[in-house]
Amino acid sequence: MSTRAAIAFKTEEGWSGVYSHWDGYPTSLGARIWDTIMKEFILNKGEIGIANDGSRSLQSFVDVYIKGHRGGWSSFPETCYCHDPEFVMRDGDKTQEEFMDQDHSDPLFIEWVYIIDPDMKTLTVLTHGRSKGLEHNKVVDKKTGEVRKWDSPKYAHYPVVVLSLNPDIAEPNWEAIEKKGGEISEQMSKKFETRYGRSI
Ligand SMILES: [Zn+2]
Fold it and tell me: Within a domain: residue 63?
């Protein structure tokens, strides 16, 4: 199922990261990010991939899997849009794409965000839901000049959980995290309906 997400690193303003297309929910993408970080960057003593330990390990994940694949992931961590031969044939060079960030990503479509903070050694999971506001949309028909206006709900990202990334920690309960994210989205929809009604 195409559940769109962002795999990101922490910045002063919020986060920056790359697009992920398939199965972006915590029980799938969350678990895959966790496995990759643990196997290749935290527990790895040099046998697999690019190994580091200590404080550089999470920065290496950011450098290799986010900054090294600016085109984003069709399916993390196997197929990216910037190096997979078929996608490169189809789309051209995507190795220099801009990152998406908290101000340049549409929370309506980006349902989950995973933010790695190498300094704090955390993985933060955000979900999406309706915000309190409305978006005022306007489209001008190029032929007739007719203006069409409508309002639609704005979406925003909301924090679900902050996970500590250290070698001693047990694998998080991704099902519980996914459920909590769903509950947050539902609460935001209810708040929105209380304010604007169900019709929008
Ligand atoms: Zn790539």
Answer: yes
Does residue 123 lie within any of the structural domains?
yes
Per-residue pLDDT tens digits for 9-43:
999 999 999 999 999 999 999 999 999 988 887 77
> What per-residue confidence (pLDDT) applies to 173?
97
Ligand 1 centroid from CA 177, angstroms:
28
17 in any annotated domain? yes
> 91 CA distance to ligand 1 centroid (A)?
12
| Residue 137 belongs to some domain of the structure | no
Task: Kindly give the distance from the C-alpha atom of residue 65 to the centroid of ligand 1, in angstroms, as a whole number.
Answer: 8
Split into its structural domains, the chain has a count of 1
CA–CA dist 21, 69 (Å, integer): 13
Q: Which two tokens stand for residue 40?
A: 């290749």
Other CB atoms within a 10 A radius of the CB of residue 176 amount to 13
Cα-based torsion angle of the residue sequence 73, 75, 78, 83 in order, rounded to the nearest 10 degrees: -40
Amino acid 22 reads W
12 alpha carbon – ligand 1 mean position (Å): 25
Question: In the chain, what percentage of residues exceed pLDDT 70?
Answer: 92
What value does the mean pLDDT of the chain take? 89
User: Which range of residues forms the domain containing residue 123?
Assistant: 5-129+156-196
CA of 95 to the centre of ligand 1 (A): 7
